[in-house]
Design brief:
The mean pLDDT is about 90. This protein has one domain: 3-Layer(aba) Sandwich (Collagenase (Catalytic Domain)). The protein is built from eight helices and four strands. It has about 170 residues and is α/β, with parallel strands linked by helices. Strands 1-2-4-3 form a four-stranded mixed beta sheet, with helices on both faces.
């Protein structure tokens, strides 16, 4: 399974806030995709084609615009994910292509920083959580229904634990 990240840094503060961010993203990517491949039967992960994931390290203004335009939510959010793969018709949809462009993940710097401060966690830990969350979304996971949310959260917790990050859903005392 060859997964390539195409990274765009629109907001320069990312590079100052999280040193070695490219290496961190590679580590989180590997942990996420390895865990999902070991626990789920997802055709895209078994395809003999390179997989591309676009990650944009952006800001509140850009994410606000995307959230408004594509989700009818007139506010910024921490992470947006746009899957490019129709998992129900994967084989027919991807047969003519040499590679699979799985989707796009956009993370808002200012919102991430505010949330990390509010939750009293490191930027590193919160960034890793948002990235795992985004990866899971473009792999077809969702959290609209309660049972979906519990299932997705169980994956997030296990993946984050595998890279040494505490459960983000555990309330601090």
């Amino acid at each position: 399974m060859q997964i390539n990240l195409q990274i765009e840094t629109e907001e320069p503060r990312w590079l100052e806030a999280i040193p070695d961010i490219d290496a961190i993203m590679q580590n989180v990517k590997n942990a996420t995709f390895d865990y999902v491949a070991a626990h789920e039967n997802i055709d895209v992960l078994k395809a003999d084609k390179p997989i591309i994931v676009n990650v944009c390290l952006s800001n509140d203004a850009h994410v606000w615009q995307l959230n408004r335009d594509f989700r009818n939510q007139d506010k910024p959010t921490n992470v947006l994910s746009f899957a490019n793969v129709d998992f129900d018709d994967f084989d027919a949809q991807n047969e003519p292509f040499a590679e699979i462009e799985l989707g796009d993940i956009i993370i808002a710097y200012e919102t991430m920083v505010r949330e990390a401060e509010t939750e009293n966690i490191t930027l590193y830990a919160h960034f890793c959580h948002l990235l795992v969350h985004g990866f899971l979304h473009i792999l077809g996971f969702d959290h609209i229904e309660d049972d979906e949310a519990e299932y997705m959260e169980s994956f997030e917790k296990a993946i984050l634990q595998s890279i040494g990050i505490a459960n983000p859903y555990e309330e601090s005392l």
